[in-house]
Amino acid sequence: MRRLLLRSFVQAPLTEPAPPADDRALAELAARVNQVSRRRLGRTLAIREVDAGSCNGCELEIHALGNVLYDLERFGLKFVASPRHADVLLVTGPVTVNMREALERTYQATPDPKWVIAVGDCARNGGVFAESPACVGGVSAVLPVDLHVPGCPPSPIVLLGGLLALLEDSSTGTPRGQGGREKEGGA
Amino acid sequence: MAWARSIVSRDGWLEAAERLRSGEWSLLGLWGERDVARMALIEVKTGECRVLGIVCEASHFPSIGRLHPPAIRLERAMHDLLGLEPDGSPDTRPWLRHDGAYRFLPVEGESLHQIPVGPVHAGIIEPGHFRFTANGETVVRLEERLGYVHKGIGALMTGAPIERAATLAARVSGDSTVAFSLAFARAVEDALGLEVPPRGVWLRALAAELERLANHFGDIGAICNDAAFGIMHAHCGLLRERVLRTAAASFGHRLMMDRVIPGGMQCELTDEGARQVLALVALARRQFPDLVEVYENTASLKDRTVGTGILSPALAQQFAAGGYVGRASGRNFDARRTPGYAPYDALEFDVPVVQAGDVNARVWIRIREVEQSLGLIEEIVNRLPAGSIRAPLPLPRAAQGAREGVALVEGFRGDILASIRIGVEGRVEQCHLRDPSWFQWPLLEAAIEGNIVADFPLCNKSFNCSYAGHDL
Predict the structure, then answer these.
(1) Residue A173 pLDDT level (bands cut at 50, 70, 90)
(2) Which of A29, A30, A114, B113 is the most buried (most CB within 10 A)?
(3) How far apart, in whole angstroms, are the C-alpha atoms of residue B53 and residue B95?
(4) What backbone phi and psi angles, to 5 degrees, belong to A94?
(5) In whole angstroms, what is the distance from residue B215 CA to residue B325 CA?
(6) How far apart are the C-alpha atoms of A104 and A143, rounded to whole Å?
(7) pLDDT at residue A113 greater than cutoff 90
(8) Which residues of chain A make contact with B165, given a CB cutoff of 8 A?
(9) Do residue A102 and residue B290 have CB atoms under 8 angstroms apart?
(10) Residues 6 or more apart from B23 whose CB is under 8 A from it?
């Protein structure tokens, strides 16, 4: 183990630079986020992930955000264990009938102000499962959705772009469309 | 090896149940189709596989679960999905249907308390409910309640064109997308009598081994992380990410979703892709041994994993537990060997088996399988046959009638069964995909008994059952 630690100590950090905040996502958000919330949140967001019927592909990529290459926490973004500690619900899956109530209750347990991000193509409108009677069909059928991150599943870079858009918009009121760039260095 | 198929009488069905009970045969799957109940079986001694069916009279059939407990949850699911009634089943509660109140099994005794957990868990994991009954810190009983991510995939596949059903099969369980696509594709090819060109066969195996590698790296790290040993998690997470990036570079998708299709492969491996795959193998061979050494020589970590969550070989055998769960408890089974499929018959690899059955054993099986997969990947890339990568699906011919096919594929988690019936118009009439988790989830309940509540995450991660694959 000493060798492993020593090597980590001398080698350059593996963490990669951040992608620019997703412009489209910024535009989508601007309408939803008000100044009051921005001031209250500062530059940090606590995220609660909710799998509402995903195939677990999205979970794998959300997990990857925590690895040393993406290192989500350097941006002040953090996954929390309880919705009561969360600012953001990150919801995946086509929302199965069996998860509907749990999702609603998780939302109710999240304090205001709060945002909902629907992650993946299923979460947008049910995706390939849209016609199933066992699925409600998209997160927006159950909760007000502030932002969609498309993909099947979205790669960590795409996820990060979406999350950074939320951070830019919710914390500083950075003018739309030119978010991430200037934040990159300090991040 | 071809699968024998037959429709049997009530006596034949019950005789099979008796052979399951005695351990002569193992259960590979049990599912319903409108008015027929079917089960897939493997003879333990010979590895001979067969599919038996029984015509249900007024939706009733004799319960297998009455004699062979591993069938109980499958029968509950059959009831929920198709209304089939297993006569004499010891457990008639709903399983995938969640309407109405659910009755958990009673637990009696002094000083017991219950801890309900889920469906929304603390981590980034799939939803399911765990009902712990504990005496102080010690778990007396765990009862699982699953079905939260039930999406009705079976129903969606019914009547769908093969391409659409393949897309659904790739999304049964995202972490096993290659394995599920492969199981589905091989069942379709079995039904249609379709021969996949050798290059396609080998590329599929390459994708499957990359998937196994990525998942095992992720699991080894995550298990250590649940023992609060973050450094393994960080390093294994990095290796996993390297595999996913290599997959994206060589197959165009990080999880290689929709790359394996009926008839062959959807995409070619370029020379540059092959070079990157070999570079990945070299990187993993350089870095992984150090991690294994850290795992092996950290007493505080071994203290958590050794002797924790022991699954007895008898239970693993009875439930025909696949993958690392079975092989860590002495069950020497790997679908790549038995019944076996190309190209593994032409490749050299070991199937590691140990007897201890604890968390440590499940970690070690993964470590050994990583080493085997690295060897396989290298061999596959070096010996990759030339030629085309897929054969076109034949046009349906009405004269042939409906055709049936079945396949067993070794995913990273264990053996995946796919059974399909294709109608005269080339549409899927019925498709059943059985995740290995069906036979592993019940064993987690057994493995946690007598352990402390705080060791549950560790045990759970060492099983790493799929919720999505199970709930369908």
Answers:
(1) very low
(2) A29
(3) 22
(4) -80, 10
(5) 14
(6) 7
(7) no
(8) none
(9) no
(10) B44, B317, B318
Amino acid at B80: D
- Which residues lie closer than 8 Å to B275 by C-beta, 6 or more apart? none
Confidence class of residue A10 from pLDDT cuts 50, 70 and 90? Answer: confident
* Option in A51, A68, A96 nearest B237 (CB): A68
Name chain A contacts of B238, Cβ cutoff 8 Å: 14, 67-69
Residue B410 C-alpha from the chain's centroid: 8
What Cα–Cα distance (Å) separates residue B372 from each residue in A84, B216, B322, B345, B376?
Answer: 45, 12, 17, 15, 6
Q: Please check the confidence at residue A184 and state whether its pLDDT lies above 80.
A: no
Distance CA A81, CA A79 (A): 7
3-state per-residue secondary structure call for chain B:
CCCEEEECCHHHHHHHHHHHHHCCEEEEEEEEECCEEEEEEEECCCCCEEEEEEECECCEEECCCCCCHHHHHHHHHHHHHHCCEEECCCCCCCCCCCCCCCCCCCCCCCCCEEEEECCCCCCCCCCCEEEEEEECCEEEEEEEECCCCCCCHHHHHCCCEHHHHHHHHCCCCHHHHHHHHHHHHHHHHHHHCCCCCHHHHHHHHHHHHHHHHHHHHHHHHHHHHHCCCHHHHHHHHHHHHHHHHHHHHHHCCCCCCCCEECCEECCCCCHHHHHHHHHHHHHHHHHHHHHHHHHHHCHHHHHHHCCCCCCCHHHHHHCCCCHHHHHCCCCCCCCHHHHHCCCHHHCCCCCCCCCCCCHHHHHHHHHHHHHHHHHHHHHHHHHCCCCCCECCCCCCCHHHCCEEEEEEEECCCCEEEEEEEECCCCEEEEEEEECCHHHHHHHHHHHHCCCEHHHHHHHHHHHCCCHHHHHC
Task: Check: CB of residue B431 under 8 Å from CB of residue B407.
Answer: no
CB within 8 Å: B155 and A132: yes
Q: What confidence score (pLDDT) does residue A177 get?
A: 31
Residues of B in contact with A130 (CB under 8 A): none
CA atoms within 13 A on the CB side of B378: 15
Token pair for B337 = 């060997």
Tens digit of pLDDT for each residue in A59-108? 999 999 999 998 888 888 899 999 999 999 999 999 999 999 999 999 99
Q: How far is the C-alpha of A93 from the C-alpha of B452, rounded, in Å?
A: 33
Tell whether the torsion through CA atoms of A59, A60, A61 and A64 is positive or negative.
positive
Q: How many helices (H) and strands (E) does chain A have?
A: 8, 5
Say how far apart CA B339 and CA B409 lie, in whole Å. 9
Q: Using a CB-CB distance cutoff of 8 angstroms, which residues of chain A are in contact with residue B148?
A: 53, 96, 98-99, 102
**What was the pLDDT predicted at A27?**
57
Which residue from B457, B460, B455, B467 is spatially nearest to B443, judged by alpha carbons? B460
Q: Which two tokens stand for residue B92?
A: 């008639």
Q: What's the average model confidence in pLDDT over B132-151?
A: 96
CA distance A175 to chain B (A): 32
The residue of chain A with its CA nearest to that of B245 is A155
Answer whether B312's CB lies under 8 Å from B329's CB.
yes
